[in-house]
Request: fold
Amino acid sequence: MTRRGYVIGALSLLGAFVIFVIPFIFVGINAAKTAQDASQLDFSLPERWVFWENLVAVVQARDYALLLAYFNSIVITVGAVVLLVIFGAMIGYVLQRRPSRVSRIAYMVALSGLMIPPAVVPTIWVLQGTGLFKTLHGMILIQVAYGLGFTILLYRSFIGTIPRELDEAAIIDGAKPWQVFFRVVLPLLKPVTLTIIVVQSITIFNDFTHPLYYLPGRENITVQLTLYNFQSQFVSQMNLLFMNILLITIPPLLVFIFFNRQIVAGMTSGAVKG
Reply:
């Protein structure tokens, strides 16, 4: 590697450290302070470490609202990701294997979901009309609708790298269309499926705006909405707020760290042929 390459690499690492690591350290330090010390919002070490006391206070706040929020977020995330994988793979397979005018129009409609901003008020009206407003399964369908375009895009691109001869050989052996997909094609989609599971899980788990719009009510609280527990117009418990941020940030961060290589592999594996 040339000297210029080393310099660029060092600057990149420095930039990543400043952008990602320093804020995390700042949150961790202030999460271990008392309320008075944390209100200063500085990098000084705590005069008295109260990390465990703050953690217990956050978990017990508002009748263990954080535990309920974790349960709701996990239900929404798992339900939405399962539906995204199933329907995204099936739609991507049909759009790639059966090119026609109808499939091209359907693909453009799916991609439009990545470009057109969601209409909140009409969506609430539809949810209220169907009895899905303020329900977890309604929120699951919302997350599926918002993530389906991206999922179809990845699956369609990846399926384009799988030879059609595999489909034809399975059909010659007597396999039905659904058997071709589930027994031949779907097992080959493991890299992109893992990428979609990780990316969409982090996105849905960290979603703040959609549960705020479509899932009101204390019983429907999600992890991101628990930030309101310690901050209001007149009173802010900054130490507990930082502890809450730490607790809801660590799980997605660990997932991203451990599956980073799989994410990159799945995103690039379908880039050779679209």
